[in-house]
Amino acid sequence: MPSYPEYDYVIIGSGPAGMAAAVTARQQGLSVLVLDEQPAVGGQIYRNLEALESDRPDEFRKLGAEYQTASELVRAFRQSGAEHLRGRSVWQIDPDLTIRHLGLVDSGTTVPSGCRAKRLLIAIGAMERPMPLPGWTLPGVMACTAADVLYKSSGLLPSGQVVLAGSGPLLLLIACRLLDAGVSIGAFLDTNPRGSLLKALPLLPDALKAAGYLTKGAGMLWKLYTSGIPVHSGVDGLEAVGDEQVKKVRFRKEGQWHEVETDLFLLHHGVVPNVQITRQLGCEHRWYEPQRYWEPVLDEWGNTTLDNVAVAGDCGRVCGAAVSELSGHLAALETARALGRLSPTGRDAAAAPFRTQLARQKAVRPFLDALFAPAQPWLVPENEDTVVCRCEEVRVRDLRTVVQHGVQGPDRVKSMIRCGMGPCQARMCGLTVSEVIADERQLSPEDVGYFRIRSPIKPVTLAQLAGLD
Amino acid sequence: MNQEQADVVIIGGGVIGASLGYGLTKRQARVIILDREDFRLTASRGNFGLVWVQSKGFGMPRYAQWSQEAAERWPAFSEQLESETGLALSYQQTGGFEMCLGEEEFAQREAFLEQMRQQSLTGTYPCTMMTREAMQERMPRIELGPRVSGGSFCAYDGIVNPLHLLKALHEGFAQQGGEFHPGHTVQTIRPTGRGFQIETETQRYEAAKLVFASGLATTQLAGLVGLQVPVAPQRGQVLVTERTERIFPFATGRIRQNADGSFMLGASHEDVGYDLATTNEVMQEIATHAIEVFPALKQLQLIRSWGALRVLTPDQKPVYVESEACPGAYAVTSHSGVSLASLHSTYLPEWILNGQTQPGFDAFHPRRFDVSPAA
Amino acid sequence: MFHQPRDPRSPSVPFTFEGQACEATAGQTVAAALMGAGHLTLRESIVSGSPRAAYCMMGVCFECLVEIDGHPNQQACMVLIREGMQIKRQSRPLGE
User: Which of A47, B105, B188, C3 could form a Cys-Cys staple with A152, CB 3.0–4.6 A?
Assistant: First the structure.
């Protein structure tokens, strides 16, 4: 039995939440280890921030004021004295908080290693909500943030024509970035149902507390509408068409199908918490109806229903970078209290300024969540040929059929038709499977439940499991 | 409270209860199966899907013979169930190996087979030792690890998809008029002179006969009618890999390749009560063993693991018993519910309906567990 | 499909894909390096053989699986390109 090093605080994820937690924890004198499977700090939102700042300063400046502030956070993280292992994939966490991880192939060794934690913080962020539609597995169809990642991390821009489809602030943001970079955009297909703004308006007054955010959004919309790109609203049907790769996109609005040619088809339908680790650990989760996803049950410090396991950032509830960072600070203060370094009053006092900012930053969320509520055609694909489980190519029709034969829950469905049993371990299909079963059974996904997630958190080879290289 | 009537009420809708129900309804009995639907504890959902003969029945030759007969009848049983329900079971009588690593294990296994042969009621035992070379010849597409010295082979061993089996049994049961009442936990049982009255939280049942096929709940429930059926949980952990091309056409007790190409690896035997967690230690051991037998498996990715609980009697062999205090109440328990499905759906219904037993049936009575203090 | 507004100062990183010599820029992930070199389709679905390429670029979708320096099943979007890396299309996991 190897002896693993022990830390007061192990943080998984080095985005804004993880970095903030590390900085505050170190200020409280805790020993901290940060693990991230990504090659660089910053999470998704601040991808490759350090390299951009030093190597591509012009582009870095274009990214805006938030990035400059984030850059300060990164510096503080680097100077905090927290240990940091990048390129490390966590594949199992035991009930006693022994954390097993292994290095990715470029990190020099892939032999599994591990550590022990007195307190664990899961800050692995969010992921794109899967947006299944016919043809979405074709090469050239990508999640829209993929284009952002390629640009920020690797300096690549699409060469040919791009079509963007979906709804949500991120889609807009990325469309504007591509526009700024001179990329040819063939169409912007907005799938937000008509009338969603009306539904969300009652929540606007509260949202104005974060007026800066809204102004920015309005500015992007303006840019898009005056760009000359064909913008279509109320799109309720989409198909990606091609043989070896996507060649065109078919879209339906007001009952009519149209076509547009494309080399790259970017999709976005909101962002959901990545619950893979909290689920594997057995934390309780609850259903968040406005955005139709499951989130871990947390208290106001991010504590989960498991002792000494907490969550910060978007993997708890999607609220964006600013809120993630604040929740990281709060989680670390609570950890300091739990480990006896801070009294409850000391903790609350230190937390006060963070809490004020948090309230302000969170104010815009109910409005945004209502405005960009997930739309039915993308939760439960109309076309029954649509692949739901990409790994195993299980289609909507297969799911409905097995449910009609009396198989009721996601795990039992999985054991019969293999959806969720491929390498992605249900990350891409989990939510859709629950939605389709719910639709077929005329229940809420909350009643249907979600797959039971088990170890390993990420696939490991049998050799790695056996402790060989 | 609502009252329902049946000829037989079966408490437990796992593979054993479903096999019994399928066989009883085929013999025109009116049957209701009750199930409390605790999916974590039901062994029928976590098992390895082996239809296995070798190694069974050491010290109880009747059980060794019973296992062999079950396997002999499995192909016809599978065909019939498939054609009646239209559901595929993915059953294959592939033949099975027990792998030996090193010379000592080979010698031990050989000695074991010899003991089984000597104990056998027929004087034979359908299992032979095979050298490494002979074994390798049988499986040209997958290389044996350097430490594999050979092993034992039994042509009757096979594999099935246990979830499809369970589903098909329920389907056949329903087609034959059986009723499945899930979500019921038995609260009280009362012998009535004509049979039994069974009460759950919401329903009352009256049946001439009562069968406990209740897995880990059997001890408690069967005790209500004076039956002593000791069972205890034993954990086994299972690993499932990604799919790959099909290269292993047999099965071992610990390694099998499913129809979809994924490998399923086991096994552990742990006394941990009702804990279903998987542990790194055991997962490591299972992976190490698999790689020792087939080094090519090294690079396969593990996708999922789980723990499940076997239902074990003190000698790990089946118990079939009718209550003497309350005749008409029966208990059926075995940790080989999949392997024995072919007999649980034929011989046992005949025993339950008209008292007809197979020769040597008494060997399965739980009085064998009574230890005389003087002995 | 993807191009790089190339910064002459960025060091170039030579690697091979399926034996062919390619060039990436330092700091790129393997997935980006391959896409930048014009290789979009990375593998075939084990179920139907349909062509698959990177989808999410953040380690969630497991579509961008390639073999790197003899290690199969690597998520190309998570690994940084290094000089001399030998990348191959995902072969059968058990090798042949």
Answer: A47
